[in-house]
Amino acid sequence: VQLQASGGGLVQTGGSLRLSCAASGSGFSSNDMGWYRQAPGKLRELVATITSRGRTYYVDSVKNRFTISRDNAKNTVYLQMNSLKFEDTAVYYCIVYATATNYWGQGTLVTVSS
Length: 114
Description:
mainly beta; seven-stranded mixed beta sheet; four-stranded antiparallel beta sheet
């Protein structure tokens, strides 16, 4: 299983980016998926998750700014990020939760200039 994340880049404060993470293979429609991020010098933190039924969770710092969604037909999870702040700068990682192990994407860098 491989996860390919994309969509990161450089954006100004207040701007938007949309991250995508496509999972190879099939059968992920029953798996929960999510996004983590790791800022320089900090621990990796959970950003958002979405269950197989579409229930979402967001860390407080991104509520009302970020939206997680998924397309099961494409085995893809998205993270729409609006009103970006300098403190959102980080490497963003997608994750697919599975029973035996979790699968991680390679990370995509988001840089928000102040």
